[in-house]
Amino acid sequence: MNELHTLLTQIGVSKVARVSYVALFSSGALSITDLAKQAKLYRPQTYEALEELKERGLVSVLPKGKRVLYLAAPPSKVRDLLAELLAKVEVALPELETAYRRDKNKPTIVAYEGRSGVTSVFADLVDSQKRGETFYRYSSEKDLDRTNTYLPRDYRKKRDAKGLERFVITAPRIGKGKKVRMERAMKYIPEGFDLFDQDVIELIYANKIAFIDLNTETSFIVENTKLADFHKKLFRLLYQKL
């Protein structure tokens, strides 16, 4: 009967109505008293369930003398209700698809709080990119070792397995603490211009821009292709000038 429960759930039948229908389906015609016992429901719940089943055409009423019995409609009625639901979906789908495409042009923003949120941003970076793609990073963190504690355990493994290339703009004090890597290109903000120690990171990757404020462990991701492309161009322009 699990499949029957699943089908009834998919067409939006409530729990008490599902239990009542299955009880009638298994036992045949029952009175309200017998149905309540069979379905292990209180009488008010049984009345409520029968009203719902009658509205959906899932139960028949059989007068028998002074008694009234209730009989489950055949399973084909469940199929018909599923077909009606699918037909409504098909009618609504074109408008929903149009709305979905229209909304995809709007930026979506996901915000995070706390240490786990910072980790989520780095995880999203490696998960969102395809093999051999490039990402861009502004790093103004004050403590590189502390920043590394936010990385997911498998961050470097996934990054290197995908062969992700990255371009970094940071301060000399940070860059000099990093090992030289073939897949990483780095340039520095001139020391005479700014210390670049705001403890903030910006990541530009795939169709996203992520900002991490290590001062408050607050971070958020903006997903939008045009905004991401815009920031990539600005990064490349600045990188060329440094």
Largest β sheet strand count, sense and barrel closure: 7 strands, mixed
CATH class of the largest domain: Alpha Beta
CATH topology of the largest domain: Endonuclease, Chain A
Mean pLDDT across all residues, rounded?
89
Our measurement of the CA-to-CA distance between the termini, rounded to an integer number of angstroms, reads 69 Å
Q: Which band does the percent of strand residues land in?
A: 15-25%
Please name the fourth-level CATH homologous superfamily of the largest domain. Endonuclease Chain A
Supply the number of helical segments. 10
- Percent in helix: 40-55%
Extended strand count: 9
Say what oligomer this is: single chain
Secondary structure elements and their pairing?
Blueprint (H helix, E strand, L loop, with lengths): L1 H9 L4 H13 L4 H8 L3 H13 L3 E6 L2 E6 L2 H30 L3 E6 L1 H14 L5 E6 L4 H5 L6 H7 L3 E6 L1 H4 L8 E5 L11 E6 L2 E6 L4 E6 L1 H17 L1
Parallel strand pairs: 4-5, 5-6
Antiparallel strand pairs: 1-2, 3-9, 4-7, 7-8, 8-9
Helix pairs in contact: 1-2, 2-3, 2-4, 3-4
